[in-house]
Design a protein that fits this description.
heterodimer; A: mainly alpha; MetI-like fold; B: mainly alpha; 2 domains; 11 helices
């Protein structure tokens, strides 16, 4: 295992990948130093790294990241807390499905950020707007994935469990939820991705002093391109880490264990 | 990259049971009637100022007025032009890059790290950078839409070419197909379902990003700008009319672009996954 990891670390494709990154970085650096574009617009990589380190040192970057994550977690949490039960109910009860689906298909095509101005008018600038936008963006993928997960549970399992005397409760926890889990996890992942995109936009538009999206937008006013690139790097790193670490491990703990990886890929 | 919501499977649930068209129409309309009625009640009770919570009549009136005066169509048209141009750029560049990545190991090694670094960053985060580089207006809006929607297209085209079965390639080669024919008759049809999925995801992404970019880029016309501008004047009815148009365009994209595209290609080749 260890040796395989080490040898894959030094595989030719990885080396060539690193090489291509280096080449792109060198090209950018040459462009930045050539003075063809103003220094304020294309800062050198050294300047960007310096800004990044400085903002990490004095802690401002952590505050911005914390503010953004706080909004994501609250909005996403509400979306999960409402989306999963609603999706399950849609899958189990026809009338709920009949009521929710038409509304969903009308609301879904509206990009969440289109609501920002309306929400600003209704709730004022600040956290509420960003949290609600995140909620709006995350709710539909969560709900629809749960719904199709519940519908995809093999009816034979339900009947078999019923014939073996499973109560309604056991049926729900032992059959429906595990059976729907690949879809639910796909929904969680997709919702989180949507929230992450939405929160950046919402922070730009509904500026509220803290937050990674706000930093980028604010830096534009001062032509502070190194700050913009530094926050971009932080945004990318957080997105990448949450995708790999959180959802990767959730997936391993559940659907791979239950042997459902194939249906998860759908 | 295969998921439920970008897939338009809503029809599946409503197909069950024998209902007359009238019943079906009522069942689909019922939730809107309920929500609309509750909206009306709240608006007429005057709990919130009418400026912030306009009645449906006033939204409809404003919608009709803006449509008749040609303002709303103009905004919608400009938005659509940006969507089409940005998406067309992304489709050309994305499919080319993805197919090349799938066919050539070297290009894959060069491009894949760049794509996998760029993709997880939310597209809007680039917006201020694009505005700084290209100045406000149409260019950054179109460029950003193209840039952002290129990622799913590249990724899916690459996966699609990779997913073409080795045995098809070898049997075609054994039967004497040259590179061009191999590409035209084996690789392309084999990868097409994935490419179509990528295009659909890309267009959905482009649509989501465009409205927000229009708000940021200070373009003279466009639905995003209409909504954002109306906020300054507390014109909630204009904003909601704009959002209605956005919803209608989104629905039309789903019905008249995504679904026919899917039927035409994927189903025809019998490759529905």
């Amino acid at each position: 295992m260890m040796r395989a990891a080490v040898s894959s670390l030094w595989s030719p494709s990885l080396r060539r990948g690193a090489l291509s990154m280096l080449v792109v970085a060198a090209l950018y650096e040459a462009l930045a130093r050539s003075g063809y574009f103003p220094q304020a617009l294309t800062p050198t990589l050294g300047a960007v790294a310096f800004t990044l380190v400085a903002s990490l040192r004095d802690g401002t970057m952590f505050f911005h990241a914390a503010a953004t994550l706080y909004r994501v977690v609250i909005g996403f949490g509400f979306a999960v807390a409402i989306g999963i039960p609603l999706g399950v109910m849609m899958g189990r009860f026809r009338p709920v499905e009949n009521f929710v689906l038409p509304l969903t298909s009308a609301l879904m095509p509206i990009p969440s950020l289109a609501w920002v101005p309306v929400f600003i008018l209704w709730f004022g600038l600040g956290n509420t707007v960003s949290v609600l936008i995140v909620f709006y963006a995350a709710l539909f993928p969560m709900m629809l994935n749960t719904w199709s997960g519940v519908r995809s549970v093999n009816p034979i399992w339900l009947r078999a469990a019923g014939a073996m005397g499973a109560s309604e409760r056991a049926l729900f926890w032992k059959v429906i939820i595990p059976g729907a889990s690949p879809f639910i996890i796909a929904g969680l992942r997709q919702s989180f991705l949507r929230s992450w995109i939405a929160v950046i936009g919402a922070e730009m538009l509904a500026g509220s002093d803290w937050g990674l999206g706000w930093v980028i937008f604010d830096a534009k006013q001062f032509l502070d391109a190194d700050m913009m690139l530094a926050s971009l790097a932080v945004i990318g790193a957080i997105g990448f880490l949450s995708e790999r670490l959180i959802f990767g491990s959730v997936e391993r703990a559940t659907i791979y264990r239950w042997g459902m990886a194939r249906s998860a890929r759908g | 990259m295969h998921n439920v919501i970008d897939h338009g499977q809503f029809g599946a649930a409503t197909a069950a049971g024998e209902e007359s068209p009238l019943q079906l129409a009522w069942r689909n309309a019922c939730p809107f009637v309920v929500v609309g009625a509750s909206w009306e009640v709240v608006a007429h009770l005057g709990i919130f100022p009418a400026q912030f919570f306009p009645t449906l009549e006033s939204i409809v009136a404003r919608f009709a007025q803006l449509t008749a005066s040609g303002v709303l169509p103009h905004h919608a048209f400009d938005t659509l032009v940006r969507l089409v141009v940005g998406f067309a750029l992304a489709a050309c560049a994305g499919v080319t890059a993805g197919v090349l990545m799938g066919r050539s190991r070297r290009i894959e090694d060069i491009l894949l790290p760049l794509v996998s670094i760029g993709a997880p960053i939310p597209g809007l985060a680039y917006a201020p950078l694009f505005l700084l580089w290209f100045g406000p207006g149409n260019i950054p809006a179109v460029a950003l839409v193209g840039f952002v929607s290129a990622f799913p297209i590249i990724y899916n085209s690459w996966t699609g070419v990779k997913a073409v079965k080795e045995i098809w390639l070898r049997s075609a080669q054994a039967m004497g197909a040259d590179d061009r024919r191999l590409f035209r008759y084996v690789v392309l049809p084999g990868a097409l379902p994935y490419i179509v999925t990528g295009l659909r995801l890309g267009l959905a992404q482009a649509w989501r990003i465009l409205v927000a970019v229009e708000m940021l880029a200070a373009v003279p016309w466009g639905l995003g700008w209409l909504i954002f501008g109306a906020q300054e004047f507390l014109n909630t009815d204009v904003m909601l009319a704009g959002i209605t148009v956005i919803a209608l365009i989104g629905l039309a994209l789903e019905k008249f672009v995504f679904q026919p595209l899917e039927n035409f290609t994927v189903v025809r080749w019998g490759m529905m996954t």
